[in-house]
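Example 3.2
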Amino acid sequence: MSSVAPAPRLSAAARREQILAVALEVLGEVGYHGASMNDIAEAAGVTKPVLYQHFASKRELYLALIDAAGDRLISAIGDATADATDGRRQTELGFKAYFSWVANERHAFMLLFGGGSRRDDEFALAVRRITSDAAQAIAPLIAVDIDEEARRTVAHGLVGLAEGASRRLVERGEGFDPDEVAATVSRLAWAGLRALG
């Protein structure tokens, strides 16, 4: 007899979202190889067959988590910068959104940028696609007079700057003030962008 308590009735879409939320926490903490589908099913309060109704494999589940985390990150940056009226404000708001996302979604950050996703070709490709999408989203916000190829390169550099700073903050394992970090990093980035112009 299974030790899993019966899960409350949810719609298929709601159940999928619930499984994704639990799997993000589990896999974001221990990595792809650190947990089994049994562990995820148990943490989600569902049976393994129910888990497999939504995701055919742990790999499919992990890729869905990568996509969902990337979508939330890119949406957060886009939403935050949509109403900014100048380049400096866009820079500040973009970094503030990024570091707030990291502070609030540590497991998602680790899933995307921790070592586990980098060691698997398929996962690494999915993360590179997200990084590229993030750079593509911020490239038009770079308010300096440079050609498009240079703009894309700078956009990737800004994404790398945010990722590198975030990696250090998350690996320290302590809380941090995303607004304070964003203010410091955005000043650095803005000074560099102004120098380009």
